[in-house]
Amino acid sequence: MTSHDVINIVIVGDGAVGKTCLLHRYSNETFLDSYVPTVYDKEDFELMLNGTSYNVRLIDTAGQEDYERVRRLFYKEAKAFILCYSIENRASFENIALKWIPELKNIENWPIPLVLVATKTDLRDENLRGRPLITTEEGEAMADKIFANRFIECSAKKNVRIKAVVHEALRAACNGPIERNEKKSSGSLCSIFSCCQS
């Protein structure tokens, strides 16, 4: 992979977990208040990483079962995946391992680098009713389980760590997938700090 190649990063996860809000916040620096189901959307960017410019295409996909065939069209060219779940939606979290990883494992060029992303973390500050939310520790354990290159918690509403999600996905695309026998600690990996190779 060279810096001139278009690096496709595909965003997947259940419907209504905040995938489109993440893309919209990163590309337009605004927050979408209303939920509109997405079939497909994309944005192209030029990103700098370790002194090298990369052409990055972020692809937002539909999480509903009806659009599985559409999603798979974008999987073939993916260099990395951003797997999203909402901290307020236990089913979306469990579906990372039950639905999304099995679906991605059917890709011809699997394994592909993964960044696991917990969305809507602003709800922790607004959780006045004490609703059960997915904890950071649960997210880190899931990242270990699926061999994610990185685990990041973010909030599109508060614009917290949105850029980090995209930049770490690019870094993962450059570094390649995690070796399945590689030891991990505290939800992160030494390999994510190595430089991208052009």
From TrEMBL:
It is a lipid-anchor. The keyword Endoplasmic reticulum does not apply. It comes from the Eukaryota. One of its GO terms (molecular function) is GTP binding. InterPro entries: P-loop_NTPase, Small_GTP-bd, Small_GTPase, Small_GTPase_Rho. One of its GO terms (cellular component) is plasma membrane. It is found in: Cell membrane. Keywords: Cell membrane, GTP-binding, Lipoprotein, Membrane, Methylation, Nucleotide-binding, Prenylation. The keyword Protein transport does not apply. Its main location: membrane. GO terms for biological process: ameboidal-type cell migration; cellular process involved in reproduction in multicellular organism; developmental process involved in reproduction; hemocyte migration; melanization defense response; small GTPase-mediated signal transduction. Belongs to the small GTPase superfamily. Rho family. PANTHER family: RHO FAMILY GTPASE. This is Uncharacterized protein. The lineage of its organism: Eukaryota, Metazoa, Ecdysozoa, Arthropoda, Hexapoda.
